[in-house]
Design brief:
Order of helices and strands: EEEEEHEEHHEHHHEEEHHHHHEHHHEEH
Largest sheet: 8 strands, mixed
Keywords: ATP-binding, Cytoplasm, Kinase, Magnesium, Metal-binding, Nucleotide-binding, Transferase
Cofactor: Mg(2+); Mn(2+)
Subcellular location: Cytoplasm
Distance between the termini: 12 Å
Strand content: 15-25%
Enzyme class: transferase
Structural class: alpha/beta
Number of helices: 15
Helix content: 25-40%
Oligomer: single chain
Function: Catalyzes the formation of acetyl phosphate from acetate and ATP. Can also catalyze the reverse reaction.
């Protein structure tokens, strides 16, 4: 059975077509500059990330997501280069949706009620939910009769106890506006929790782990009994760790102070915190390879940014260690930085020997594919690298809902 996974943005659309019998990616791609005027670009990959990968680039006007997806269908079914003969071979379509609020706590088959809930959550996810809903409606138009399934980024965090997700604001604010910690990167954290349990050979219901999803956007999750017990992101993806362009957690009083002194509107302040802060704001770079290069060249701002990033990770790590009572099966690194940056991993684990964490520096500094252990054999807490795969998690969740 084949599942098409769609992640629709306001001006872009990422997709993957997977053969679920073997969990193989047949094709993937990214459509860009949708609705921006002029010429859009579609990068389509056949058998991606294999020795047989073939890339096709097409430029065309994409007034809406419909035109972009019509070109995707054309490439998927191309007589010479296509991976399927007809779009009717697609069994189901799984959609990444940012926010389900408190109304949706699990993966669901899309119906009119689900679409209305996604609309109701527009204020909670103004940049993503409208685009995600658009992707669903385009799929309904172009694939009539094919079931659509919504997989929510907030799903994993909905298992948190109330004392974890509530803020210290008046309770009526929560009741009226649903202001609470939701957590994001949930699809990744859920996938990693499942894979960590499998790797350790224990039931997921007994898993106690701390996952570090480190990339341009970064978050951490505290996993107890296989479920999310706490998470670093909050009402929005801005809370928590320092990230590529996001400031992470700051004193809330900073916000009105800067707005008053700089004469900023709420929108301008939001842009400052989300797009002009973090590593970019501190040293001018967002790619950790550039940051490390600048550190080697003696750039003090880059050195400061690196130290601040690591410190924010270690502070959260310490909090989760105590929330789990010191009983931790594994620390897990994933996503772009987590999987590839041996310097950050070493800095995060440095000084944790008394807590039972002993990093194998040689193994940590080696690039290898797949899940692996980078701690020493005598480390009481295993340190793992497990590559994330959000698209596969969405496809698996889609199949489970329709089973």
């Amino acid at each position: 059975m084949k599942v098409l996974v769609i992640n629709a943005g306001s001006s872009s659309c990422k997709y993957q077509l997977l053969e679920m019998d073997t969990e193989t990616v047949l094709a993937s791609g990214l459509a860009e500059r949708i609705g921006q005027g002029g010429t859009g670009k579609l990068t389509h990959k056949i058998a991606p990330d294999t020795d047989h990968e073939e890339k096709i680039v097409r430029e065309s006007a994409f007034p809406t997501h419909v035109e972009a997806m019509e070109l995707v269908i054309s490439l998927l079914t191309d007589a010479e280069k296509g991976v399927i003969k007809d779009k009717s071979e697609i069994y189901a379509i799984g959609h990444r949706v940012l926010h389900g609020g408190e109304s949706i706590t699990e993966t669901v088959k899309v119906d009119e009620n689900v679409k209305q809930i996604i609309r109701d959550c527009f204020p909670l996810g103004p940049l993503h939910n409208p685009a995600n809903l658009m992707g669903i409606e385009v799929a309904e138009k172009l694939f009539p009769g094919v079931p659509n399934v919504a997989v929510f980024d907030t799903e994993f965090g909905m298992a948190m106890p109330q004392e974890a997700y509530m803020y210290g604001l008046p309770y009526e604010i929560y009741e009226e506006m649903h202001i609470r910690r939701y957590g994001f990167h949930g699809t990744s954290h859920k996938y990693i929790a499942k894979k960590t349990a499998e790797y350790l050979g224990k039931p997921q219901s007994e898993l106690r782990s701390i996952t570090m999803h480190l990339g341009n956007g970064s978050s951490m999750s505290c996993v107890k009994d296989g479920k999310c017990f706490d998470t670093s992101m909050g009402l929005t993806p801005l809370e928590g760790l320092i990230m590529g362009t996001r400031c992470g957690s700051i004193d809330p009083a900073i916000v009105p102070f800067i707005m008053e002194k700089k004469g900023l509107t709420p929108e301008e302040m939001d842009t400052l915190m989300n797009k002009k802060s973090g590593l970019l704001g501190l040293c001018g770079f967002t790619d950790m390879r550039d940051v490390h290069k600048e550190v080697e060249n003696g750039n003090k701002k880059a050195e400061l940014a690196l130290k601040m990033l690591v410190r924010s990770i270690k502070k959260t790590l310490g909090a989760y260690f105590f929330l789990l009572g010191g009983k931790v099966d594994a620390l897990v690194f994933t996503a772009g930085i987590g999987e590839n940056d041996d310097i950050v991993r070493a800095m995060v684990c440095e000084g944790l020997e008394e807590l039972g964490v002993r990093l194998n520096l040689e193994e940590n500094g080696t690039r290898k594919p797949g899940a692996r252990t980078i701690s020493t054999p005598d480390s009481k807490i295993k340190v793992l690298i497990i590559p994330t795969n959000e698209e596969l998690q969405i496809a698996q969740a889609t199949m489970e809902v329709l089973a």
